[in-house]
Amino acid sequence: MIKILICFSVIFSSGIGLNLYATHHQPVNESNALDLAANSKSAILIERDTGEVLFNKNAQEVLPPASMTKIMTLLLVMEELENGKLQLSEKVRISEKAASMGGSQIFLEPGEEMTVNDLLKGVAVASGNDASVALAERIAGSEEAFVEMMNQRAKQLHLKNTLFQNPTGLPAENHYSTAEDMALLAKELLKYDEITKYTSIYEDYLRKGQENEFWLVNTNKLVKFYEGVDGLKTGFTNEAKYCLTATAEKDGMRVIAVVMGADSTKNRNSDVSAMLDYAYSKYTTKSLFDKNQQVTSFNWLKADQQKVNVITNDSISILHKKAEDLTGIETDVKIDQDISLPIKKGTAIGKLEVKKDGKVISETDLVIEEDMDKAGTFQLMGRILRSFLNK
């Protein structure tokens, strides 16, 4: 067991005002007074880096999420790609079950083979239920096993009011979520920058040049008609009505807007557009650290590679109103006291806390930059000897 404790502070010459509640994801005081999302049963607006809630309307009301369910499906696909268990170029054989899915689809045929890359397009752009099940079966072996993965991941992300019964969002008993949980899920998915390369596509083709060529048109029209929108996922069933989890980025600030239970496509898009307008007219962000930026490093006597770099797990920003003067901000790096070797690249070993007037307003995981194993006996002896001789 290695005993480590590192804690240091950095004082920034400029900071923010008083409206930061990222740690607890609480809404700003004026949130409930805003006349937004009038056409939707529930809604939420958050800034992605800090997680601060800018607007909240019944955001914890349990409702059917329809095809916004596919945000979790996409997250699990991206995680499999990241850990090397799935490749974009891999061809997936389509089962009878996947091909038989109703609702929105890309009209896969039983026995057809399609690359993971094209199936991802089918999910992200056309909301294909058949493509979602095909990817689920490839990753977990069956749709049922994949649903277990979805619910386990939901627990890990502390989505307290979410339960999935399928990877598509097709109507099912006890299949539910909330606007708040959808925003947190989208926040996690957006750690993968490349996902917006798919969700921002407005139109494309599958099987281009073949007899069964299929034209993909994005179900999220805002990617074409609202500047900065590059995702994320629409939803509709008779029970859920019109839903949308949208994300946009302007001037370095990314926000997530979720509406559920809107009464029409037009009103759904109008509600989201108004929420985005509000965010970009009132707020801006100041970047502190980029994703994967080195924050510190230290020496581990008992590790095979003695010098270890510690990096951010996500981008870190502070959010403030455009009219506010910036004041001092403090950051603390805290590394866990007990770390056991070996540990894998990407394992969280501490936190970077952003503080305002001594109060923690946000915290982000710090991770190890590369795999670390135990040093061999001769390595340890050599280091101890060199340390002794250098005294």
Measure the end-to-end span. 25 Å
Order of helices and strands: EEEEHEHEHHHHHEEHEEEHEEEEEEEEH
Question: Into which percent range does the helicity of residues fall?
Answer: 25-40%
CATH architecture of the largest domain, by name, is 3-Layer(aba) Sandwich
Radius of gyration: 23 Å
Number of helices: 10
User: What's the structural domain tally?
Assistant: 2
Described by the principal axes of the CA atoms, the overall outline is globular
Range of strand content: 25-35%
CATH superfamily label of the largest domain: DD-peptidase/beta-lactamase superfamily
Overall pLDDT score: 88
CATH topology of the largest domain: Beta-lactamase
Query: Total strand count, please?
Result: 19
Q: Describe the largest sheet.
A: 6 strands, antiparallel
Could you name the CATH class of the largest domain? Alpha Beta
Low-confidence stretches: 1-29
GO biological process, one term: proteolysis
Function: Removes C-terminal D-alanyl residues from sugar-peptide cell wall precursors.
Protein name: serine-type D-Ala-D-Ala carboxypeptidase
Pathway: Cell wall biogenesis; peptidoglycan biosynthesis
